[in-house]
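Weekly sync notes, structure subgroup
Attendees: PM, AL, DS (notes)

Item 1: joint prediction request from the bench team. They want all two components modeled as one assembly rather than separately. Inputs as received:
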Amino acid sequence: MTSEIKIVSFLPATLDTRESASRLTNLIKEELGTSKKIELDFQSVLFMSRSFADQFHKEVSRLENIDLVINNADFGIVEMLNSVAKTQTQRNPVNTNYKVLSFDNLSKLTDFSYAW
Amino acid sequence: MVIKLPSRFSDNFGHPIQSLFSLLEQVQSASGCKEIELNYREAKFTHPFYTLALPLIKKQYGRSGQSLVINDDFIDASTSEYMNCLSFPNGIDPLDLSDSSFEKFMEKFQNKTYIPIITFPAGDGNEVSAIRDQFLSAINRLLVRISQIKNPEMGALMYLLDEAINNILHHSYDDCGYLLAQYYPSKGYIDIAIADIGRTLLESYQNFDKYKNQINTHLEAMKAALSGQSTKGGNVDRGFGISTSKEVLTKGLNGKYFIWSGNVFNIHNSELNNVIELPQTIYWQGVYLCLRIPVVAKAGFNLYNYTD
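Output from the run, pasted for the record:
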Protein backbone atom coordinates (compact mmCIF):
# COMPACT_ATOMS: atom_id res chain seq x y z
CA MET A 1 0.00 0.00 0.00
CA THR A 2 1.22 3.51 -0.86
CA SER A 3 0.64 6.72 1.09
CA GLU A 4 0.96 10.09 -0.56
CA ILE A 5 1.86 13.20 1.41
CA LYS A 6 1.27 16.49 -0.31
CA ILE A 7 3.85 18.74 1.32
CA VAL A 8 2.06 22.06 0.89
CA SER A 9 -1.00 20.68 2.65
CA PHE A 10 1.02 20.48 5.85
CA LEU A 11 3.90 22.92 5.51
CA PRO A 12 4.51 26.35 3.97
CA ALA A 13 5.58 26.71 0.34
CA THR A 14 9.13 27.39 1.46
CA LEU A 15 10.67 24.75 3.72
CA ASP A 16 12.79 26.86 5.99
CA THR A 17 13.58 25.26 9.34
CA ARG A 18 14.75 22.07 11.03
CA GLU A 19 11.54 22.00 13.05
CA SER A 20 9.39 21.79 9.93
CA ALA A 21 11.57 18.90 8.66
CA SER A 22 10.88 17.10 11.94
CA ARG A 23 7.16 17.70 11.50
CA LEU A 24 7.34 16.11 8.06
CA THR A 25 9.23 13.06 9.31
CA ASN A 26 6.75 12.66 12.15
CA LEU A 27 4.01 12.57 9.55
CA ILE A 28 5.95 9.98 7.56
CA LYS A 29 6.32 7.86 10.70
CA GLU A 30 2.57 7.96 11.23
CA GLU A 31 1.98 6.83 7.64
CA LEU A 32 4.53 4.05 8.04
CA GLY A 33 2.07 2.40 10.40
CA THR A 34 -0.07 1.51 7.40
CA SER A 35 2.20 1.81 4.34
CA LYS A 36 5.81 1.03 3.57
CA LYS A 37 5.83 3.09 0.39
CA ILE A 38 5.55 6.84 0.97
CA GLU A 39 5.31 9.31 -1.89
CA LEU A 40 6.17 12.91 -1.08
CA ASP A 41 4.61 15.38 -3.48
CA PHE A 42 6.67 18.57 -3.68
CA GLN A 43 4.31 20.28 -6.13
CA SER A 44 4.21 24.06 -5.39
CA VAL A 45 7.15 23.92 -2.98
CA LEU A 46 9.30 26.92 -3.89
CA PHE A 47 12.41 26.32 -1.85
CA MET A 48 14.07 23.96 0.61
CA SER A 49 16.66 25.40 2.99
CA ARG A 50 19.88 23.63 3.86
CA SER A 51 18.75 23.31 7.46
CA PHE A 52 15.49 21.65 6.44
CA ALA A 53 17.26 19.34 4.00
CA ASP A 54 19.93 18.34 6.53
CA GLN A 55 17.41 17.57 9.27
CA PHE A 56 15.14 15.73 6.87
CA HIS A 57 18.04 13.66 5.52
CA LYS A 58 19.18 12.70 9.03
CA GLU A 59 15.75 11.74 10.30
CA VAL A 60 14.65 9.81 7.21
CA SER A 61 17.91 7.87 7.06
CA ARG A 62 17.12 6.49 10.53
CA LEU A 63 13.78 5.06 9.39
CA GLU A 64 13.80 1.37 8.57
CA ASN A 65 11.86 -0.46 5.87
CA ILE A 66 10.78 2.64 4.07
CA ASP A 67 10.36 3.05 0.35
CA LEU A 68 10.40 6.81 -0.13
CA VAL A 69 9.57 8.40 -3.48
CA ILE A 70 9.98 12.09 -4.18
CA ASN A 71 7.55 13.48 -6.73
CA ASN A 72 7.36 16.84 -8.50
CA ALA A 73 10.46 18.28 -6.86
CA ASP A 74 12.17 21.03 -8.79
CA PHE A 75 15.89 21.18 -9.53
CA GLY A 76 16.75 23.20 -6.44
CA ILE A 77 15.13 20.78 -4.02
CA VAL A 78 16.91 17.79 -5.50
CA GLU A 79 20.22 19.67 -5.53
CA MET A 80 19.82 20.70 -1.89
CA LEU A 81 19.11 17.13 -0.83
CA ASN A 82 22.16 16.01 -2.80
CA SER A 83 24.29 18.68 -1.12
CA VAL A 84 23.44 17.56 2.41
CA ALA A 85 23.82 13.89 1.52
CA LYS A 86 27.41 14.62 0.42
CA THR A 87 28.32 16.44 3.62
CA GLN A 88 27.15 14.05 6.33
CA THR A 89 30.59 12.48 6.77
CA GLN A 90 33.01 14.80 4.96
CA ARG A 91 33.19 18.36 3.81
CA ASN A 92 35.02 20.60 1.41
CA PRO A 93 37.74 22.90 2.74
CA VAL A 94 36.38 26.20 4.04
CA ASN A 95 37.82 29.49 2.82
CA THR A 96 39.68 30.94 5.80
CA ASN A 97 41.67 33.39 3.74
CA TYR A 98 41.07 36.45 5.87
CA LYS A 99 43.27 39.05 7.54
CA VAL A 100 42.97 39.72 11.26
CA LEU A 101 43.16 43.37 12.31
CA SER A 102 42.81 45.01 15.66
CA PHE A 103 41.80 48.59 16.46
CA ASP A 104 42.15 50.20 19.84
CA ASN A 105 40.12 53.24 18.90
CA LEU A 106 37.35 53.94 16.43
CA SER A 107 38.90 56.88 14.62
CA LYS A 108 41.43 54.52 13.04
CA LEU A 109 38.64 52.31 11.80
CA THR A 110 36.65 55.11 10.16
CA ASP A 111 38.75 55.51 7.01
CA PHE A 112 39.03 51.77 6.69
CA SER A 113 35.25 51.30 6.73
CA TYR A 114 34.87 53.33 3.52
CA ALA A 115 36.36 50.37 1.67
CA TRP A 116 33.53 48.09 2.74
CA MET B 1 22.29 62.53 28.89
CA VAL B 2 21.22 63.02 25.25
CA ILE B 3 23.00 61.36 22.32
CA LYS B 4 22.11 62.86 18.98
CA LEU B 5 21.85 60.24 16.24
CA PRO B 6 22.85 60.77 12.59
CA SER B 7 20.28 62.38 10.30
CA ARG B 8 21.33 60.48 7.19
CA PHE B 9 23.55 57.70 5.88
CA SER B 10 25.46 57.34 2.64
CA ASP B 11 25.11 54.32 0.34
CA ASN B 12 28.41 53.02 1.66
CA PHE B 13 27.90 49.62 3.30
CA GLY B 14 30.20 50.57 6.17
CA HIS B 15 28.66 53.94 7.06
CA PRO B 16 25.69 52.78 9.16
CA ILE B 17 27.86 50.10 10.76
CA GLN B 18 30.59 52.57 11.66
CA SER B 19 27.89 54.89 13.05
CA LEU B 20 26.60 52.02 15.16
CA PHE B 21 30.07 51.47 16.62
CA SER B 22 30.26 55.19 17.46
CA LEU B 23 26.85 55.07 19.09
CA LEU B 24 27.81 52.15 21.29
CA GLU B 25 30.99 53.92 22.31
CA GLN B 26 28.95 56.98 23.32
CA VAL B 27 26.36 54.90 25.16
CA GLN B 28 29.10 53.06 27.00
CA SER B 29 30.70 56.36 28.01
CA ALA B 30 27.35 57.60 29.30
CA SER B 31 26.43 54.43 31.16
CA GLY B 32 25.79 55.20 34.79
CA CYS B 33 23.75 58.28 33.88
CA LYS B 34 20.24 58.00 35.23
CA GLU B 35 18.80 57.99 31.75
CA ILE B 36 20.27 58.05 28.26
CA GLU B 37 18.18 59.48 25.44
CA LEU B 38 18.92 58.44 21.86
CA ASN B 39 17.65 61.43 19.96
CA TYR B 40 16.62 60.35 16.46
CA ARG B 41 14.31 63.33 15.83
CA GLU B 42 16.39 64.83 13.02
CA ALA B 43 16.59 61.63 10.99
CA LYS B 44 15.93 62.13 7.28
CA PHE B 45 17.41 59.04 5.62
CA THR B 46 17.60 56.02 7.87
CA HIS B 47 19.22 52.68 7.17
CA PRO B 48 18.14 49.17 8.24
CA PHE B 49 21.63 48.28 9.51
CA TYR B 50 21.38 51.17 11.99
CA THR B 51 17.65 51.27 12.63
CA LEU B 52 17.33 47.65 13.76
CA ALA B 53 20.09 48.10 16.32
CA LEU B 54 18.41 50.91 18.25
CA PRO B 55 15.58 48.98 19.93
CA LEU B 56 17.99 46.11 20.57
CA ILE B 57 20.53 48.37 22.26
CA LYS B 58 17.70 49.73 24.38
CA LYS B 59 16.68 46.19 25.33
CA GLN B 60 20.27 45.08 25.99
CA TYR B 61 20.99 47.99 28.29
CA GLY B 62 17.58 47.65 29.92
CA ARG B 63 18.50 44.10 30.96
CA SER B 64 21.48 45.45 32.86
CA GLY B 65 19.38 48.11 34.51
CA GLN B 66 20.45 51.07 32.38
CA SER B 67 17.50 53.21 31.35
CA LEU B 68 17.69 54.18 27.69
CA VAL B 69 14.94 55.90 25.71
CA ILE B 70 14.60 56.44 21.98
CA ASN B 71 13.22 59.81 21.02
CA ASP B 72 11.42 59.00 17.79
CA ASP B 73 9.32 62.14 17.53
CA PHE B 74 10.65 62.71 14.02
CA ILE B 75 10.67 66.28 12.74
CA ASP B 76 10.54 65.21 9.10
CA ALA B 77 7.02 64.07 8.19
CA SER B 78 8.08 61.53 5.55
CA THR B 79 10.61 59.98 7.93
CA SER B 80 7.94 59.75 10.58
CA GLU B 81 5.58 58.00 8.16
CA TYR B 82 8.26 55.61 6.94
CA MET B 83 9.44 54.68 10.42
CA ASN B 84 5.87 54.15 11.48
CA CYS B 85 5.44 51.74 8.55
CA LEU B 86 8.56 49.89 9.74
CA SER B 87 6.88 49.54 13.15
CA PHE B 88 9.87 51.31 14.65
CA PRO B 89 10.96 50.83 17.37
CA ASN B 90 8.96 47.92 18.76
CA GLY B 91 8.52 45.79 15.64
CA ILE B 92 5.89 43.18 14.84
CA ASP B 93 5.62 39.95 16.77
CA PRO B 94 3.78 37.24 14.80
CA LEU B 95 2.65 35.68 18.06
CA ASP B 96 0.55 38.80 18.65
CA LEU B 97 -1.33 38.31 15.37
CA SER B 98 -4.02 35.77 14.65
CA ASP B 99 -3.66 33.70 11.46
CA SER B 100 -6.13 35.86 9.56
CA SER B 101 -4.69 39.20 10.68
CA PHE B 102 -1.20 37.86 9.98
CA GLU B 103 -2.09 37.24 6.33
CA LYS B 104 -3.68 40.67 6.11
CA PHE B 105 -0.70 42.21 7.80
CA MET B 106 1.75 40.75 5.28
CA GLU B 107 -0.44 41.79 2.35
CA LYS B 108 0.09 45.40 3.30
CA PHE B 109 3.70 45.20 2.21
CA GLN B 110 3.25 43.63 -1.21
CA ASN B 111 3.72 46.92 -3.03
CA LYS B 112 6.34 48.34 -0.69
CA THR B 113 10.10 48.12 -0.88
CA TYR B 114 10.66 47.07 2.72
CA ILE B 115 9.82 44.53 5.35
CA PRO B 116 9.16 46.10 8.77
CA ILE B 117 10.95 45.17 11.96
CA ILE B 118 9.94 41.59 12.62
CA THR B 119 10.41 40.01 16.01
CA PHE B 120 10.47 36.33 15.22
CA PRO B 121 10.00 33.86 18.08
CA ALA B 122 12.90 31.56 18.88
CA GLY B 123 11.03 29.19 21.18
CA ASP B 124 11.06 25.41 20.81
CA GLY B 125 7.41 24.49 21.28
CA ASN B 126 5.46 22.93 18.41
CA GLU B 127 2.94 25.73 18.23
CA VAL B 128 5.58 28.47 18.29
CA SER B 129 7.73 26.76 15.68
CA ALA B 130 4.72 26.22 13.39
CA ILE B 131 3.81 29.91 13.59
CA ARG B 132 7.45 30.81 12.99
CA ASP B 133 7.59 28.59 9.90
CA GLN B 134 4.52 30.26 8.44
CA PHE B 135 5.97 33.64 9.16
CA LEU B 136 9.43 32.91 7.77
CA SER B 137 7.91 31.50 4.63
CA ALA B 138 5.78 34.62 4.27
CA ILE B 139 8.85 36.84 4.71
CA ASN B 140 10.75 34.85 2.10
CA ARG B 141 7.91 35.06 -0.41
CA LEU B 142 7.29 38.72 0.33
CA LEU B 143 10.94 39.64 -0.23
CA VAL B 144 10.90 37.77 -3.53
CA ARG B 145 7.73 39.59 -4.58
CA ILE B 146 9.05 42.99 -3.51
CA SER B 147 12.33 42.57 -5.38
CA GLN B 148 10.70 40.67 -8.28
CA ILE B 149 13.59 38.24 -8.51
CA LYS B 150 13.47 34.77 -9.99
CA ASN B 151 15.79 31.79 -9.81
CA PRO B 152 18.71 31.47 -9.42
CA GLU B 153 18.76 34.71 -7.38
CA MET B 154 15.50 33.78 -5.63
CA GLY B 155 17.02 30.59 -4.26
CA ALA B 156 20.11 32.48 -3.12
CA LEU B 157 18.05 35.11 -1.30
CA MET B 158 16.01 32.46 0.50
CA TYR B 159 19.16 30.46 1.30
CA LEU B 160 20.88 33.47 2.88
CA LEU B 161 17.83 34.44 4.89
CA ASP B 162 17.14 30.92 6.12
CA GLU B 163 20.72 30.22 7.13
CA ALA B 164 20.93 33.47 9.07
CA ILE B 165 17.61 32.97 10.82
CA ASN B 166 18.25 29.30 11.60
CA ASN B 167 21.60 30.21 13.15
CA ILE B 168 19.90 32.67 15.45
CA LEU B 169 17.09 30.27 16.32
CA HIS B 170 19.46 27.54 17.40
CA HIS B 171 22.29 29.50 18.96
CA SER B 172 20.96 32.62 20.61
CA TYR B 173 19.14 30.99 23.54
CA ASP B 174 17.02 34.12 23.72
CA ASP B 175 13.29 34.55 23.31
CA CYS B 176 13.45 36.01 19.81
CA GLY B 177 15.41 37.24 16.83
CA TYR B 178 14.90 40.41 14.80
CA LEU B 179 14.85 41.26 11.12
CA LEU B 180 14.53 44.39 8.98
CA ALA B 181 14.94 44.62 5.20
CA GLN B 182 14.91 47.34 2.58
CA TYR B 183 15.06 46.87 -1.19
CA TYR B 184 16.68 49.66 -3.22
CA PRO B 185 15.35 49.21 -6.78
CA SER B 186 17.55 51.90 -8.34
CA LYS B 187 20.67 50.42 -6.72
CA GLY B 188 19.78 46.81 -7.41
CA TYR B 189 20.26 45.35 -3.96
CA ILE B 190 18.47 44.42 -0.74
CA ASP B 191 19.94 45.36 2.62
CA ILE B 192 18.91 43.01 5.42
CA ALA B 193 19.78 43.24 9.09
CA ILE B 194 19.18 40.13 11.22
CA ALA B 195 20.15 40.10 14.88
CA ASP B 196 19.69 38.72 18.33
CA ILE B 197 20.74 39.80 21.80
CA GLY B 198 21.22 36.32 23.21
CA ARG B 199 24.46 34.39 23.46
CA THR B 200 27.62 35.54 21.71
CA LEU B 201 29.46 33.09 19.46
CA LEU B 202 31.99 32.68 22.27
CA GLU B 203 29.26 31.81 24.77
CA SER B 204 27.81 29.31 22.30
CA TYR B 205 31.15 27.51 21.93
CA GLN B 206 31.86 27.57 25.63
CA ASN B 207 28.62 25.71 26.18
CA PHE B 208 30.40 22.61 24.85
CA ASP B 209 33.13 20.82 26.81
CA LYS B 210 34.95 20.11 23.58
CA TYR B 211 35.60 23.80 23.00
CA LYS B 212 35.96 25.09 26.56
CA ASN B 213 39.74 25.00 26.55
CA GLN B 214 40.16 25.77 22.88
CA ILE B 215 37.98 28.80 22.32
CA ASN B 216 38.37 31.45 24.96
CA THR B 217 38.12 34.79 23.22
CA HIS B 218 35.68 36.44 20.86
CA LEU B 219 38.40 36.43 18.21
CA GLU B 220 38.89 32.68 18.54
CA ALA B 221 35.12 32.19 18.46
CA MET B 222 34.76 34.22 15.27
CA LYS B 223 37.60 32.29 13.61
CA ALA B 224 35.97 29.01 14.61
CA ALA B 225 32.60 30.11 13.25
CA LEU B 226 34.13 31.24 9.96
CA SER B 227 35.97 27.95 9.58
CA GLY B 228 32.71 26.05 9.95
CA GLN B 229 33.15 24.62 13.45
CA SER B 230 29.59 24.07 14.56
CA THR B 231 28.39 25.55 17.83
CA LYS B 232 26.09 22.52 17.94
CA GLY B 233 28.83 20.18 19.05
CA GLY B 234 31.38 20.26 16.26
CA ASN B 235 30.11 17.46 14.04
CA VAL B 236 31.32 17.45 10.46
CA ASP B 237 27.74 17.59 9.18
CA ARG B 238 26.94 20.90 10.86
CA GLY B 239 28.37 24.41 10.79
CA PHE B 240 27.81 25.20 7.13
CA GLY B 241 25.67 28.28 7.61
CA ILE B 242 28.20 31.08 7.83
CA SER B 243 30.86 29.69 5.50
CA THR B 244 28.49 28.75 2.69
CA SER B 245 26.48 31.98 3.01
CA LYS B 246 29.64 34.04 2.68
CA GLU B 247 30.63 32.14 -0.45
CA VAL B 248 27.18 32.47 -2.01
CA LEU B 249 26.99 36.16 -1.25
CA THR B 250 30.50 37.38 -2.00
CA LYS B 251 31.49 35.04 -4.83
CA GLY B 252 28.17 34.20 -6.44
CA LEU B 253 26.31 37.47 -6.06
CA ASN B 254 29.09 40.03 -5.57
CA GLY B 255 27.41 41.08 -2.34
CA LYS B 256 28.66 42.04 1.11
CA TYR B 257 28.58 40.16 4.41
CA PHE B 258 29.09 41.50 7.93
CA ILE B 259 28.83 39.47 11.14
CA TRP B 260 29.52 40.85 14.61
CA SER B 261 29.58 39.13 17.97
CA GLY B 262 31.18 40.36 21.18
CA ASN B 263 33.92 42.79 20.20
CA VAL B 264 34.88 41.04 16.94
CA PHE B 265 33.41 41.23 13.48
CA ASN B 266 34.05 39.87 10.01
CA ILE B 267 33.57 42.00 6.93
CA HIS B 268 33.65 40.11 3.65
CA ASN B 269 33.07 41.39 0.14
CA SER B 270 34.51 40.56 -3.27
CA GLU B 271 37.67 42.55 -2.50
CA LEU B 272 38.38 41.97 1.16
CA ASN B 273 37.81 39.50 3.94
CA ASN B 274 38.86 40.85 7.33
CA VAL B 275 38.31 39.79 10.91
CA ILE B 276 38.49 42.85 13.10
CA GLU B 277 38.89 43.16 16.83
CA LEU B 278 37.26 46.24 18.30
CA PRO B 279 37.92 47.92 21.64
CA GLN B 280 36.16 46.01 24.44
CA THR B 281 33.71 48.88 24.90
CA ILE B 282 32.19 48.31 21.45
CA TYR B 283 30.44 45.10 22.17
CA TRP B 284 27.43 43.26 20.73
CA GLN B 285 25.75 40.83 23.10
CA GLY B 286 24.51 38.20 20.63
CA VAL B 287 25.05 38.24 16.89
CA TYR B 288 24.47 41.13 14.48
CA LEU B 289 24.36 40.32 10.79
CA CYS B 290 24.17 42.72 7.85
CA LEU B 291 23.76 41.45 4.30
CA ARG B 292 23.81 43.44 1.07
CA ILE B 293 22.28 41.12 -1.50
CA PRO B 294 22.39 42.15 -5.18
CA VAL B 295 19.29 41.06 -7.09
CA VAL B 296 21.29 40.11 -10.19
CA ALA B 297 23.88 37.35 -9.82
CA LYS B 298 27.09 36.85 -11.75
CA ALA B 299 26.66 35.09 -15.10
CA GLY B 300 26.46 31.33 -14.70
CA PHE B 301 25.63 31.52 -11.00
CA ASN B 302 24.40 28.25 -9.51
CA LEU B 303 23.54 28.33 -5.80
CA TYR B 304 24.26 24.63 -5.39
CA ASN B 305 27.89 25.06 -6.36
CA TYR B 306 28.36 26.73 -2.98
CA THR B 307 26.28 24.65 -0.60
CA ASP B 308 28.60 21.73 0.18
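Discussion: The first strand of chain A starts at residue 2 and ends at 6.
Action: AL to compare against the crosslinking data before next sync.
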